Amino acid sequence: MTKVGFFKRLKTLNFQQKKLFAIALCQRMLPNYQLFAEVSEFGNAAVLDTLLQLLWQSLYDNKLKINIEAQLVKLEENTPEPNDFDMYGVYPALDAVVALTSFLGALQSKIEEDITNISKLSSSTVANYVETLIGDEFASEEALEDAIFAHPVMQQERELQMSLLEIVEDNPELDADFVKALRKEIVMDGVSNIGVSIIEND
Question: Taxonomically, which superkingdom (predicted)?
Fold first, then answer.
């Protein structure tokens, strides 16, 4: 994300807004892990899904307490090691876990920048995905970067993050109805930042 003013605007959000922005991005990354877990038979995607449900709820339910240490242990147990898998899907799946781990770590440390950096992590997942699609076609690093930036999947990621930022900016007070509606929209869309779609029967 290099759009002028994007990160400056992101950093001016209040803490709750920053959390909402990051949780929404983590939710979008979940299908990447779900597909990987299904194909590789590694990990339990329900661990990530349950944690995300708790994080969404925590935005409007002040009584909800999340045991961060316990959740971090669960995430670690479900973190894939890329060298153990001969498939590209391990990388976006790993990013999905790293995003949630980073988010919980930021809650512990209260370092707000670590939360906003999830924006960069999501974009990095997309950039790496695009590079696997087009990487061999370019002789120079600069040409490759330009092609990645111009690719429709990366453009879609940039547009979605900007749209999400605008929605969050317009709602400084996060009431339950707004948070639930945004979560439902993202979950129902069911498409990840790299276009992975998981159809759930529930």
Answer: Bacteria
- Average pLDDT of the chain is 94
Q: Which residues of the chain have pLDDT under 70?
A: 1-4, 199-202
Which CATH code of 1.20.1560.10, 1.20.1590.10, 3.40.50.1110, 3.50.30.10 fits the domain covering 9-189?
1.20.1590.10
pLDDT of residue 199: 66
CA distances from 168 to 21, 69, 129 (A): 7, 28, 27
Residue burial 44-60, b: 16+ Cβ < 10 Å; e: rest: ebebbbebbeebbbbbb
Q: How far apart are CA 144 and CA 111, in angstroms?
A: 33
* Burial class of 174 by CB neighbour count within 10 A (0 to 12, 13 to 18, 19+): middle
